[in-house]
Amino acid sequence: MSDEAFMGRALELAQRAQAEGEVPIGAVVVFQEEILGEGWNRPVSASDPTAHAEIQALRAAAAAVRNYRLAGATLYVTLEPCDMCLGAMFHARIARVVFGATDPKKQVLKNQVAVEGGVRAAECGTLLSAFFASRR
Protein backbone atom coordinates (compact mmCIF):
# COMPACT_ATOMS: atom_id res chain seq x y z
CA MET A 1 0.00 0.00 0.00
CA SER A 2 1.07 3.59 -0.54
CA ASP A 3 1.42 6.55 1.81
CA GLU A 4 -1.79 7.87 0.29
CA ALA A 5 -3.68 4.67 1.12
CA PHE A 6 -2.54 4.63 4.74
CA MET A 7 -3.34 8.33 5.05
CA GLY A 8 -6.78 7.47 3.67
CA ARG A 9 -7.34 5.17 6.65
CA ALA A 10 -6.13 7.92 8.99
CA LEU A 11 -8.66 10.26 7.38
CA GLU A 12 -11.44 7.73 8.01
CA LEU A 13 -10.44 7.66 11.68
CA ALA A 14 -10.39 11.47 11.74
CA GLN A 15 -13.99 11.43 10.54
CA ARG A 16 -14.83 9.09 13.43
CA ALA A 17 -13.33 11.62 15.85
CA GLN A 18 -15.42 14.36 14.26
CA ALA A 19 -18.57 12.25 14.58
CA GLU A 20 -17.79 11.94 18.30
CA GLY A 21 -17.45 15.72 18.63
CA GLU A 22 -13.66 15.68 18.79
CA VAL A 23 -11.14 17.57 16.67
CA PRO A 24 -10.92 15.42 13.51
CA ILE A 25 -7.48 13.81 13.71
CA GLY A 26 -6.73 10.18 12.90
CA ALA A 27 -3.57 8.07 13.00
CA VAL A 28 -2.32 4.61 12.07
CA VAL A 29 0.91 2.78 12.89
CA VAL A 30 2.17 0.59 10.05
CA PHE A 31 4.92 -2.02 9.98
CA GLN A 32 5.78 -3.98 6.85
CA GLU A 33 2.61 -2.89 5.07
CA GLU A 34 0.39 -4.00 8.00
CA ILE A 35 -1.60 -1.68 10.24
CA LEU A 36 -0.62 -2.49 13.83
CA GLY A 37 -2.60 0.21 15.59
CA GLU A 38 -5.21 2.86 14.92
CA GLY A 39 -6.36 5.90 16.83
CA TRP A 40 -8.47 9.00 16.64
CA ASN A 41 -8.59 12.10 18.78
CA ARG A 42 -10.39 11.44 22.10
CA PRO A 43 -9.17 13.90 24.76
CA VAL A 44 -12.65 15.30 25.46
CA SER A 45 -14.59 12.02 25.54
CA ALA A 46 -11.84 10.21 27.48
CA SER A 47 -11.22 13.16 29.84
CA ASP A 48 -7.56 12.58 29.05
CA PRO A 49 -5.26 15.32 27.72
CA THR A 50 -2.93 12.64 26.31
CA ALA A 51 -5.64 10.91 24.24
CA HIS A 52 -4.39 12.30 20.94
CA ALA A 53 -4.85 10.16 17.83
CA GLU A 54 -1.13 9.37 17.66
CA ILE A 55 -0.99 8.22 21.29
CA GLN A 56 -4.06 6.03 20.79
CA ALA A 57 -2.48 4.45 17.70
CA LEU A 58 0.86 3.91 19.46
CA ARG A 59 -0.85 2.27 22.44
CA ALA A 60 -2.82 -0.06 20.18
CA ALA A 61 0.26 -0.98 18.15
CA ALA A 62 2.35 -1.62 21.26
CA ALA A 63 -0.40 -3.83 22.69
CA ALA A 64 -0.63 -5.74 19.40
CA VAL A 65 3.07 -6.59 19.37
CA ARG A 66 3.36 -6.71 23.20
CA ASN A 67 6.31 -4.34 23.15
CA TYR A 68 6.53 -0.59 23.61
CA ARG A 69 9.27 -0.46 21.00
CA LEU A 70 7.93 -0.16 17.48
CA ALA A 71 11.26 0.00 15.67
CA GLY A 72 10.94 0.34 11.93
CA ALA A 73 7.27 1.35 12.01
CA THR A 74 5.72 4.35 10.27
CA LEU A 75 3.07 6.53 11.87
CA TYR A 76 0.56 8.25 9.58
CA VAL A 77 -1.41 11.14 11.07
CA THR A 78 -3.71 13.71 9.53
CA LEU A 79 -2.19 16.68 11.43
CA GLU A 80 1.42 17.55 12.16
CA PRO A 81 2.19 15.96 15.54
CA CYS A 82 2.55 18.01 18.69
CA ASP A 83 5.66 17.80 20.85
CA MET A 84 4.06 15.29 23.25
CA CYS A 85 3.25 12.91 20.41
CA LEU A 86 6.69 13.36 18.85
CA GLY A 87 8.22 12.46 22.21
CA ALA A 88 6.10 9.31 22.40
CA MET A 89 7.16 8.40 18.86
CA PHE A 90 10.79 8.89 19.82
CA HIS A 91 10.43 6.54 22.82
CA ALA A 92 8.57 3.99 20.71
CA ARG A 93 11.42 4.07 18.16
CA ILE A 94 9.10 5.01 15.29
CA ALA A 95 11.26 5.20 12.15
CA ARG A 96 9.13 7.54 10.06
CA VAL A 97 6.24 9.96 10.48
CA VAL A 98 3.98 10.96 7.59
CA PHE A 99 1.49 13.76 8.26
CA GLY A 100 -1.15 15.57 6.26
CA ALA A 101 -1.95 19.13 7.34
CA THR A 102 0.56 21.38 9.09
CA ASP A 103 -0.37 22.79 12.50
CA PRO A 104 -0.28 26.59 12.41
CA LYS A 105 -0.58 26.75 16.24
CA LYS A 106 2.43 24.53 16.89
CA GLN A 107 4.91 27.39 17.43
CA VAL A 108 2.47 29.32 19.62
CA LEU A 109 2.05 26.44 22.07
CA LYS A 110 5.78 26.10 22.70
CA ASN A 111 5.84 29.23 24.85
CA GLN A 112 2.90 28.52 27.18
CA VAL A 113 4.57 26.31 29.80
CA ALA A 114 7.27 27.43 32.22
CA VAL A 115 9.99 24.79 32.64
CA GLU A 116 12.46 24.70 35.52
CA GLY A 117 15.13 22.07 35.99
CA GLY A 118 17.79 21.10 38.49
CA VAL A 119 15.60 20.74 41.59
CA ARG A 120 17.22 17.94 43.67
CA ALA A 121 19.11 16.97 40.53
CA ALA A 122 21.77 14.91 42.31
CA GLU A 123 19.18 12.73 44.06
CA CYS A 124 17.16 12.27 40.89
CA GLY A 125 20.26 11.39 38.89
CA THR A 126 21.55 8.96 41.54
CA LEU A 127 18.22 7.13 41.63
CA LEU A 128 18.23 6.71 37.84
CA SER A 129 21.89 5.71 37.69
CA ALA A 130 21.42 3.06 40.39
CA PHE A 131 18.41 1.66 38.59
CA PHE A 132 20.23 1.27 35.28
CA ALA A 133 23.38 -0.06 36.95
CA SER A 134 21.30 -2.83 38.56
CA ARG A 135 19.89 -3.79 35.17
CA ARG A 136 23.31 -4.35 33.59
Task: Output the keywords.
5 helices, 136 residues, alpha+beta, 43% helix, globular, four-stranded mixed sheet
Would you mind describing this structure in some detail?
This protein is α+β, with helices and mostly antiparallel strands. It has helices at residues 3-19, 53-65, 83-92, 106-109, 121-135; strands spanning 26-31, 34-40, 74-79, 96-101. Strands 2-1-3-4 form a four-stranded mixed sheet. It starts with a helix and ends with a helix.
DSSP strand content: 15-25%
Please report the number of helical segments.
5
Question: Count of DSSP E strands?
Answer: 4
Helix content, binned percent: 40-55%
Strand order of the largest sheet: 2-1-3-4
In the predicted model, the low-confidence regions spanning at least 5 consecutive residues are none
What's the rounded overall pLDDT mean? 91
Kindly name the structural category. Answer: alpha+beta
Radius of gyration: 17 Å
Return the string of H and E elements.
HEEHEHEHH
Coarse morphology:
globular
Main β-sheet description: 4 strands, mixed
Rounded to the nearest angstrom, the distance between the terminal CA atoms is: 41 Å
Question: How is this fold's topology laid out?
Answer:
Elements: H1 3-19, E1 26-31, E2 34-40, H2 53-65, E3 74-79, H3 83-92, E4 96-101, H4 106-109, H5 121-135
Parallel strand pairs: 3-4
Antiparallel strand pairs: 1-2, 1-3
Helix pairs in contact: 2-3
Q: What's this entry about, in short?
A:
The protein is α+β, with helices and mostly antiparallel strands and 136 residues long. The chain has helices at residues 3-19, 53-65, 83-92, 106-109, 121-135; strands spanning 26-31, 34-40, 74-79, 96-101.
